[in-house]
Design brief:
It is a single chain. The protein is α/β, with parallel strands linked by helices and 318 residues long. It has ten helices and eight strands. Helix 2 packs across helix 5, helix 6 packs parallel to helix 10 and helix 8 crosses helix 9. It is globular, with a radius of gyration of 26 Å. The protein starts with a helix and ends with a helix.
Length: 318
């Protein structure tokens, strides 16, 4: 009887051990599947702040990644606060990319917390500081996507992170990046040729806030922004008056509004210039901190950039 009882106990222990082994194996498989580094066949879920990051990565990542941008058309990243839904999206992603350099100033604490659990990368902070612009107060200009060469550096940083997370598709990502960068080089050549057709004395770009500094440096055009680098900066009467003096001095034919910034200050400049005898026109709407609608030409980085160049060319080349 004792032997019989012992065999029964051993049988129960064996069954329990087998069940435990199955559970642990299943848990291990689940954990492996949730790890983008090990589960190379899993489609990476990438969450970005701005579309200027999301759209190029969707081209480079192709069908191997799923990309979602928190900020859509007309959204100002300088003043953006993450909603509860945004935090859930960030939590659900395998990796997070944001521009950095204090562009998404109100989200830094959120990124710090999430970075304890998964890769969170400020892609523009990989750029050498000597290539970055600063204002008179020493604040770094975060609008680096308007310098095509600098944006290539930023996108390359993101691509390298994709390759680390999914090594099996590293060659796929690299090949797509090389092709995309060839398109960016063509875009830079087109933009340079177009802006060079504008007479030198008329190459003065007046916009609502100082988002086009890198654009101006790359394409040799003077940029005047009514607000500072951030849309949180206040616009004073002296800013409007100084801008009007610049317009009159250079006989600038047009000024521009931005898709993500209130046009009131630009309208005040136009009215003020008219009182000084200069008929300044509204040159059109530029995309600065946000791109166009998804599915439109302006909803792509290449299309957004071309739209801005064409709009500036037609307004100033008079």
């Amino acid at each position: 009887m004792k032997k019989k009882g012992l065999r029964k106990k051993l049988l129960v222990v064996s069954v329990f051990a087998l069940a435990l082994s199955v559970v642990l194996t299943a848990c291990g498989a689940k954990e492996e599947a949730s790890n983008p580094v090990e589960a190379s066949n899993k489609k990476l879920k990438v969450v970005t702040t701005i579309a200027q990051i999301a759209e190029p990565l969707s081209v480079i990542g192709g069908d191997r990644i799923q990309v979602e941008s928190l900020m859509g058309p007309g959204v100002d990243p300088h003043t953006y606060n993450a909603s509860q839904g945004d935090i859930q999206k960030l939590e659900s992603g395998d990796m997070i990319f944001y521009s950095g350099l204090h562009l998404e100033a109100n989200m830094v604490r959120v990124f710090d917390e999430i970075s304890k659990k998964k890769p969170v990368v400020a892609i523009s902070e990989s750029i050498s500081k000597d290539k970055l612009l600063q204002d008179e107060n020493g604040t770094t200009d975060p609008h680096v996507w308007f310098d095509i060469d600098l944006w290539k550096e930023s996108i390359n940083t993101a691509t390298e992170e994709l390759k680390k997370a999914n090594a099996e598709n590293a060659d796929f990502f690299e090949s797509n990046k090389v092709k995309y960068f060839e398109d960016l080089d063509k875009l830079k050549a087109e933009a340079t040729a177009k802006i060079n057709e504008i007479p030198k004395e008329q190459r003065v770009l007046v916009t609502a806030h100082d988002a086009f500094g890198y654009f101006g440096r790359m394409l040799d055009i003077e940029v005047v922004g009514l607000q500072g680098l951030s849309t949180e900066d206040e616009i004073g009467l002296s800013d409007i008056e100084d801008t009007i003096k610049t317009l009159v001095q250079y006989e600038v034919p047009a000024v521009f509004i931005e898709s993500s910034v209130n046009p009131a200050s630009i309208n005040a400049v136009i009215e003020g210039a008219k009182k000084e005898g200069l008929d300044v026109q509204l040159g059109g709407e530029l995309f600065s901190d946000a791109m166009g609608e998804a599915g439109s030409k302006e909803g792509t980085y290449l299309g957004m950039y071309r739209h801005n160049v064409e709009t500036i060319y037609h307004a100033l080349n008079k």
